[in-house]
Amino acid sequence: MDSRPIAVYDANVLYPAQLRDLLMRLAVSGLVRAHWSNQIHEEWMLNVVGNYSDISREDVEYTRSQMDRALPDAQVTGHRHLIEDLSLPDPDDNHVLAAAIHAETDYIITFNLEDFPDAKLRTHGVKAIHPDVLMSMLMSSSKEKLLKVVKRHRTSLRKPPLDREEYLEVLKATGLEKTVEKLEAHQDRL
Fold this sequence. Notes:
By secondary structure, the chain is of the alpha/beta class. 55% of the residues lie in helices and 7% in strands. It has 11 helices and 4 strands.
């Protein structure tokens, strides 16, 4: 039986480049079975291009194609018919829950927990969790493999290269505060 968390990555966790890269590495390494939809892609891509004048649509299209190439089974399709029967606080998030239901995921990884109330998700067998919670779960279940993924992520950074302390500050800035606390105990392995 496969015990890896199955998750839809919401657009807001794919928006920060460093967090997107780390989440992708978790999935490519087999720690998480990640999913997303075209609409989720469009959402993070539009926000990145809209907020960064030095990043073009072609740049984010390339990133998207690399994500889809690295995880060809991650793309969720055939879920649109579920959207109309869902009623989240922000109707613009119904597509995320529809993708999670269709892909039979355990989790929606998001920063916007209030937009995915437990009561609305529970009936579908889905739970919304912060990426920090996902990392904590992986630290508990697969610490050695997680530490290797984190180290590979840090050492892959070249523009600019980051030492251990700088890297932990970047993770903290992306919202992984509890993760950073746990990783500080293993700094020598990062």
